[in-house]
Amino acid sequence: MGKVTGFLEIDRQDRKYKPAADRIRHYDEFVIPLSEEATRGQASRCMDCGIPFCHNGCPVNNQIPDWNDLVYHGDWRRALENLHSTNNFPEFTGRICPAPCEASCTLNLQDQPVTIKSIECAIIDRGFREGWVVPLRPGHKTGRKIAIVGSGPAGLAAAQQLARVGHDVHVYEKLAKAGGLLRYGIPDFKMEKHLIDRRVEQMTAEGVVFHYNVNVGVDLSAGELVDSHDAVILAGGAEKPRDLPIPGRELDGVHFAMDFLAQQNRRVSGEPQLRNEPILATGKHVIVIGGGDTGSDCIGTSVRHRALSVTQLEIMPRPPEKENKLLTWPDWPLKLRTSSSHEEGALRDFSVLTKEFVGQNGAVTGLRCIRVDDQMQEVPDSSFTIQADLVLLAMGFVSPVRDGLLEKIDVNLDARGNVAADTRAYISSRDKVFACGDMRRGQSLVVWAIREGRQCAASVDAFLTGDTDLPR
Ligand SMILES: Cc1cc2nc3c(=O)[nH]c(=O)nc-3n(C[C@H](O)[C@H](O)[C@H](O)COP(=O)(O)OP(=O)(O)OC[C@H]3O[C@@H](n4cnc5c(N)ncnc54)[C@H](O)[C@@H]3O)c2cc1C
Ligand code: SF4
Questions:
Q1: Which residues line ligand 2 (CB under 6 A)?
Q2: Judging by DSSP bridges, how do beta strands 390-393 and 285-289 pair with one another?
Q3: Beta carbon of 456 within 6 Å of any ligand 1 atom
Q4: pLDDT of 141-176, one tens digit each?
């Protein structure tokens, strides 16, 4: 344990954001890192609890008390080694993880959790600055060939683990660059994309071969892929968005959130667009339907486009501002969460059901809505209309898409339409075909995708060699 009295002497202090008035003028990240001294002070607040709930709250089981202690003592290099032993990409999670670890921290019982996510980010950012993050090439090659479909965080984590134990790893990605939703979904202002390029460079030096613009099941036969590899991992994500099939859905100006967000990320990177018609919020009244990360990202992007107004509608009731700790801790509590994008200027309304999109001359002009009670029953005489020139549907994702890969590869799906595989073996119903990440578990988080990629890699390694040294 670092400083025995740290948590008594030092208040929680987290990274701040650049002012909203400045940051909405660009798409760069806007989080201001703490100084080294302040970060070490924050790490010293860790009490190294006998049972570290944070370690269990973190889906990759980061050994948080251990690296807090190392940071407090200024041993950044060993902190980095420790962090990398459980998490391939802490620079991603240190920026965009919702930090369930902090909800589990014992100091969260008093709303003062250790700033775990910021410390994680400081460790890896320093590691890159110091040149400590280098390719780890395998000492020997196994001669086994593995195909991974999809280069999101699940596919990348699996690829890195398997290449490091000597397998020949080939990642097939239908888009032009690696990263999955990290690159084409999550806006640059939350995570800049050079961070992905840097890892791809490291992984390429470790022996991973990336094949871009290959849609498996369309450009390359799924059967051929299985036949020509010793194992195949399906890590294609859960890309089918939840629709809102109500009257007026066909009107111009009603779009899936991902069509809007991916376009903006391509605009920032200068990549060609996949569709010609630009979706812009500039000068419009924007309605975002659905809460969650995707809805929040639509708000931040609309604000940067200079929308006239942005309103987010949520069908669920407004959650409490503060959770009842003794009922929820150390689990992830349901409570009102206000993101940096919300703070940039969005109205939020809860318990609202959208009944119809209304429009003129084929374009959306508004939404007819009604209020619902806690049981989702419509409240009599509560209907109202809201003006809208652009509607973004951000109600989550239903499952992986069926067309192409899943239609052709002949694996069983579970009741929700995800690839059926358990979390011990990660193997599908088809011999030597494995699955992980959102394609197996449904829409989730980056940190869960990394966990599944790592665990799936251990399973594949054991399948191919009879044993594995890879951690689960
Ligand atoms: C807008 C948005 C914001 C989000 N924000 C956050 C956040 O802040 N924090 C967080 O933790 N999580 C967030 N998430 C969730 C997170 O991004 C996902 O849970 C995570 O990326 C899943 O990783 P994955 O590797 O399983 O799949 P994905 O990231 O979806 O990657 C799948 C990849 O497979 C490729 N692919 C699919 N089919 C084929 C095929 N047939 N052939 C070749 N390639 C194929 C796709 O092109 C894609 O690159 C967000 C999601 C969205 C949509
Ligand atoms: S990966 Fe997420 S849950 Fe784990 S330590 Fe980092 S911020 Fe916390």
A1: 58, 60, 62, 64, 87, 93, 97, 99-101, 116-117, 120, 447
A2: parallel
A3: no
A4: 999 999 999 999 999 999 999 999 999 999 999 999
DSSP labels, 246-311: -TTTTSBTEEEHHHHHHHHHHHHHTPPPSSSS----TTSEEEEE--HHHHHHHHHHHHHTT-SEEE
Closest residue by Cα to residue 208 from 165, 166, 154, 159:
159
User: Of the residues 186, 218, 406, which should be mutated to test ligand 1's pocket, given the most ligand atoms within 8 Å of the CB?
Assistant: 186
Whose atoms come closest to the Cα of 152: which ligand?
A: 1
The residue whose CB lies within 8 Å of the most ligand 2 atoms, and thus the one to mutate among 15, 31, 84, 101, is: 101
Global pTM reads: 0.98
Do the beta carbons of residue 284 and residue 416 sit within 8 Å? no
pLDDT tens column, 186-240: 999 999 999 999 999 999 999 999 999 999 999 999 999 999 999 999 999 999 9
Q: Is the peptide bond before 320 cis (omega within 30 degrees of 0)?
A: no
Question: Could you tell me the CA-to-CA distances from 419 to 88, 426, 470 in Å, in that order?
Answer: 24, 10, 23
In sequence order, the β-bridge partners of residue 392 are 255, 288
CA–CA distance from 185 to each of 137, 180, 294, 340, 459 (Å)?
31, 8, 8, 17, 29
* Domains contained in the chain, CATH given: 6-130 (1.10.1060.10), 145-239+399-465 (3.50.50.60), 243-395 (3.50.50.60)
Rounded distance between C-alpha atoms, residue 231 and residue 145, angstroms: 7
